[in-house]
Amino acid sequence: MRKEILLSGNGGQGLIMAGVLLGEAAAIYEGKNTTQNQSYGVQARGGECKSEVIISDDEINYAEIERPDVLLAMSQSALDTYGLHIKDDTIVIVDSGLVTDVSVIKNTKNIYMIPITGISLEKTNKAILANVVALGVLSAITGIVKAESLEKVIRQRAPAGTEEMNLQALAGGIWAAELLFKQ
Q: Are the CB atoms for 2 and 61 separated by under 8 Å?
């Protein structure tokens, strides 16, 4: 098993940290091999950024993603940029509150539109935890990493005093994805 995950959006949305958490959950708690790369646009906040995570049962010899198995787009510009480079079976998850036009996606039917930032605001009163909501959504939709592994890494990594709020955000993402499947 080798899965390539591209988390994309704007600087300041916490996508680099989400990639780190995802990779650590897979490596530490599930015994997988992982890599995580990141890049920022010219602006630290507001410009495009992406986090590339590869999770594999085998050794990872090439640590860059060309065509992801999973694409998370937390901004319209991210979807417009990275949505052009997907496979027929790529799972595309978009924040429906920030991405309104998915017409760039031509070759997959696996598009999940979930109001990730809205769920973060609803569950925690903070938009900044949308990255953790996104991890919950990604876990529930793809099964690439177990929710329990993400919970453990969040308990370790969340700033002191924010662990429960982060876990509420994760649970909110899982709930939203499960609700989508019940429809």
A: no
